[in-house]
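Bacterial Ig domain-containing protein
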Amino acid sequence: NGKGPTSGTAEPGSIVIIRDENANEIGRGEANDDGDFSIELDEPLDDGDHKLELVAQDDAGNTSEETKTTVDIDTEAPTAPVVTSPSDLDNGKGPISGTAEPGSIVIIRDEDGNEIGRGEANDDGD
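Predicted structure tokens:
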């Protein structure tokens, strides 16, 4: 959805601030007692790569060094996979081959919607 969440760890109780590549604050949240945080951004990011920086501030007003990261936002659904073989399953088990968006997970379901298999398309979409 382009909003996250962005998760990580920081000093327990600190406020974690997320900024975009132009140093604009785009989200903030508090690390819990274990130091874990999970922050939804204020507004969704557009599709594509985004450089983000995160800092933590404690109750005394001290600010941590920046942590920089790049996130790839992809809100577009992949195109439907295409089965290339077999045309029927003589043995009832496959294998089933086809093409899909590179790196996508292909889930095979029976007529009742139950998952009966899954695989990941390689870098070529096979």
